[in-house]
Design a protein that fits this description.
74% of the residues lie in helices and 2% in strands. The protein is mainly alpha-helical and 337 residues long. A two-stranded antiparallel sheet has the order 1-2. Helix 2 (12-36) packs parallel to helix 14, helix 5 (103-123) packs across helix 7 and helix 13 runs antiparallel to helix 14. The protein is globular and about 60 Å long. The two termini are 37 Å apart.
Length: 337
């Protein structure tokens, strides 16, 4: 559909650049998991680079990080990439804690989680911070639902006072970790506050600019162009920006798909997501269940990010984690049968 829409887009240069980036980057990110993940240990090789990147980014930020236009930069990574990498590393560390039983290793992973929270807070990006909070809340909810399912099957282990105290303790530790992250990030927390003040003041990429973009997208969607879209990159022309490789977008991936590629493409995309999520909810897997839960959390983290910032190609994590989730569901089905 992106290739077809190039024939009628009002921003052909930006649209062509965007299309080929999508084919090259998103195509590879979507196909690769089906070839990379053949067993559980393959995921660990995927996890390690994120944790290493998180460590290097935060070390660079703490020792010699720079602020540019009130946005944190480290190792030349912009503030959004910095926040996303830290968020992904946080949930990878959380997964590894459930897999490793040695106290010393778990202590190191807890330290990794604390450093990741520091990075998310320090980044100055609203998307990564809100996505982290929402995904942590979902992780806690899934944990509680799992306990209820155990009780319904007659397994009452861990459902007494001690387990309640553990749950309260987990909430307190998570809240305390966020507080510690904010305190540790005081050097850059002033930049975080300035970033929010900038957004609310109407300066730069302000919240009012985002609302204006959303209003433009919604008005187009409600017109006759809502079915087929204005063509890939066409939103750039709607807001009267020059047709260059660095075009403008609605800063919301779902709105971007709808306004540029049309309602039909968005419906197909949402149906694909719902089919994957429904298989995770209504089918119990005897193997790879921990990996599937992890990838559900990572996909939620990526999709919440995509609702606040970045264009279709910037949010390749959405497609990567969705494809990885499908790959592990396929593996689980093969093992079960």
């Amino acid at each position: 559909m992106m290739l077809i829409s190039l024939s009628y887009t009002s921003s052909p240069h930006y649209g062509l650049d965007k299309t080929f980036r999508f084919i090259a980057f998103i195509g590879l990110a979507t196909i690769s998991p089906f070839f990379l993940f053949k067993k559980r240990s393959d995921l660990w090789w995927f996890i390690a680079p994120f944790i290493v990147m998180m460590l290097l980014l935060n070390i660079d930020l703490i020792t010699s990080g720079e602020e540019n236009d009130r946005r944190v930069r480290a190792l030349s990574a912009n503030y959004l990439a910095f926040g996303r990498i830290n968020g992904v590393a946080l949930f990878f560390s959380l997964y590894l804690i459930t897999q490793w039983k040695k106290p010393f290793v778990r202590l190191l992973l807890l330290a990794s989680m604390a450093l990741s929270l520091y990075g998310v807070v320090s980044a100055g990006g609203r998307g990564p911070l809100l996505a982290t909070i929402a995904t942590l809340a979902l992780a806690f909810l899934l944990h509680q639902v799992g306990k209820i399912n155990h009780s319904l099957r007659g397994d009452t282990t861990g459902l007494g006072l001690l387990d309640m105290l553990r749950s309260v303790g987990a909430i307190a530790m998570t809240g305390g970790a966020f507080v510690m992250a904010f305190l540790l990030a005081q050097r850059y927390f002033a930049q975080e506050l300035a970033r929010y003040q900038l957004a609310l003041s109407g300066g730069g990429e302000s919240i009012f600019t985002r609302i204006s973009f959303a209003r433009t997208a919604l008005n187009t969607i409600n017109s006759s162009e809502g079915l087929w879209g204005v063509g890939v990159g066409g939103f750039n022309a709607l807001v009267e920006r020059p047709d260059t490789a660095q075009g403008t977008y609605p800063h919301n991936m779902l709105l971007e798909i709808w306004v540029e590629l049309g309602a039909l493409v968005l419906i197909v995309f949402l149906i694909g997501i719902n089919m994957t999520m429904l298989r995770c909810v209504f089918k119990s897997y005897t193997i790879f269940s921990a990996e599937i839960r992890l990838l559900v959390l990572l996909f939620v983290f990526a999709i919440v990010n995509a609702l606040f910032s970045g264009n279709l190609n910037d949010n390749r994590f959405v497609f990567t984690f969705l494809a990885a989730l499908e790959a592990f569901i396929l593996l689980a089905h093969q093992y079960d049968t």
